[in-house]
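Annual report, structural modelling task.

Input specification for the magnesium ion complex:
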Amino acid sequence: MASGNIDWIRLDKALSVEAEKGFTNLQGNQYQFNEFLCLNFGNSPPNGTPTSDRRKWQNFAAQYADYSNLSVAQRKTLISQTRQFLYELRKTLETPSEPQPPKLPKTTAITDKKASLRPISLEQSLSTLAEVGYKRAELLKRLGLYTVKDLLFYYPRDHIDYARQVTINNLVAGETVTIVGTVKRCNCFTSPKNKKLSIFELILRDHTGQIKLNRFFAGTRFTSRGWQERQKRIYPLGSTVAASGLVKQNRYGITLDNPEIEVLDSVGSSIESIKIGRVLPVYPLTEGVGADLIRKAIIVSLEAIKQLRDPLPRVLREQYGLMGLKEAISNIHFPETSELLAHARRRLVFDEFFYLQLGFLQRRQEQKQIHNSTVFTPKGRLIEQFDNILPFSLTNAQQRVINEILEDLNSVTPMNRLVQGDVGAGKTIVAVFAVLAALQSGYQAALMAPTEVLAEQHYRKLIPWFNQLYLPVELLTGSTKKAKREEIHRQLITGELPLLVGTHALIQDTVNFQKLGLVVIDEQHRFGVQQRAKLLAKGKSPHVLTMTATPIPRTLALTLHGDLDVSQIDELPPGRQAIQTTVLTGKERTQAYDLIRREVAQGRQVYIIFPMIEESEKLDVKAAVEEHKKLSDKVFPDFNIGLLHGRMSSVEKDGVLTAFRDNKYHIIVSTTVIEVGVDVPNATVMLIENAERFGLSQLHQLRGRVGRGSHKSYCLLMSSSKTPDARQRLSVLEQSQDGFFISEMDLRFRGPGTVLGTRQSGLPDFALASLIEDQEVLELARVAAEKIIAADKNLGSLPSLKKELETRYQKLMGGEILT
Ligand code: ADP
Ligand code: MG
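The model returned the following structure:
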């Protein structure tokens, strides 16, 4: 029987008359009162009746069948309940309802349709998909997409949340939503101003209000009458329509920006379009490849998902609450809800971290299987003597790290350890212990630093100690004279020279050791993979100690050095005072200059740093030269001011730094070439211009150039930036001297690239994972990987995981594996 044809008026009348006449089961023209009611409730309830009311509706039919057997009081109660029920139902149905959330098409539903047509395989070339074709497949190759599987693993960079359905009165500009309403008016016409533009107008209405939607179609094919009429016919008056898009406030009021519109059978019916009423994926695109092409191709490809195998063991998935791979891939593209999207993302982020960690740990296992028989004894003459001549006692952190290193060295497995320690934490001493362990066991050692200044500084520090131990040490850099260089080469081969300090000059082919057992690399992140490998190749799997003064957050450390053992010197030698740090604006410059004059008057020295202004060293140098002139001529005419920049030869640079160290300059003006490690204890002021252009970690490094002696020191950060963000960022340095905390903040403010301060930072190429937001998942992945390797280091029992690891790890590392 047809539903929805309820005659509310007759029903209402029958009920009220029966009540007026004292519940006597009146006889009407055709039926008795209770028969009439039975018939009505025997019909299906009207369209849109909520489920719970449907049940009540059917109950009423039964109750009225029994009406004649009820007492008057019971009849009275029943009728009153019926009237109440009908009144409320009618209200629900007639006030256009809060629309039901549209039923989303299941992704499987979308794909199943295609599936029946032709099966698709994971390895199938995209050019064979009808939705793509040969030409567009060529374009997709530019995105690295060749096969159906590639496409499935091509994750969207974002999603537009069309799944949020709201009423018209609740539209808020800036939100992406779906509305459902009825068509009040529809029009399609050629723009009066532009003959090639067709304007489509739709007025939609729901129970809370109405809204005008516009779509614009550029191109003559859209301005034909025929096309415009067809458009109008799609949206007949009174039909129910869903529209999705970004809510926009324009001068005519609120609207949806270029919405996706689709006609529904009725309110609450299933929405067919792939776009409307759902969370829609947005993909990284390339020229000639539109969003819809990728979406369509992915929908078709989703059918191949069934063939995917999840390489993650089920126990692991269950233990960490991870979604299965098929479900995750399906939901990362077309999530049915935002919760499912979040779950899918978590699983796939886990994968990115997990395979990287697994790769790192496996490499470490492999390294541990190398036996180089280079065992250094921790107890020996040199270390004992050095302990005695040390002018200070080691900090607990230094002692702990030294022990860790000595233990590594006392093993046939080559050491591969990174020592992290804040500026001034005393890493050099720690390295010396390692070197002495090698030397007292009859091996040679090499110490490589990224710049001549740093190499020379290490050398100068080592000389007095090595003299007391009667040990020779030499320095080899690009500027070492030929005769000296040849002498060094000779002594290395004969073994007369036990320790060589230097720059990249160390990796030249002409440098050969008799018995290189230890390689120390300072500021290791400034060397390329090749350079490190080349130095290592000069020995037989030598022990490797790397050091960095750029403390990095744990997430970064894990992703960069997950294959290394890491030691932290997390304690400064006693007596270090905090460097008083102040952010100043241009207007407060005189304060800075006053402080500089005061300090110089007391015999102290000053650094003034100018940041890289452009990507060009030339401009950079120009600025430094100009500022140097201005400062020398106008601001501090009575002071000696040195100048240091990247265009100077190393000999020139060295000359300037040596003069500064010897207190011949009051002030040194420099570009960032000054950088790490320069150690002049008499310098007490570090003034940094345009500080907002530096990363916090880099500023912290620069700040570490002062406060190295017993005098109170200052860091002045000049910044005229008015953005609150820049101020807030710089204020981190006013508040903290803790390199780890600072780098963590840097990571949050500016991302991983800045923290590392290098362009080719060696960071893996994650598609989804964020080092800032996904720390928890990274930790989880690390633990999971550790467990798996501990149980089965060659992954022999997990062949599919092993296979996946091989491809994923290479891909993440961009083919370049760090040492
Ligand atoms: P960094 O970790 O920045 O390389 P250095 O090794 O250059 O630090 O040490 C900074 C300064 O602190 C040096 O002058 C060094 O001699 C001194 N130093 C190192 N360890 C200690 C200590 N335990 N007690 C006192 N001074 C120390
Ligand atoms: Mg150092």
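The chain has five domains: 8-93, 160-282, 325-370+769-812, 381-410+426-548, 580-736.
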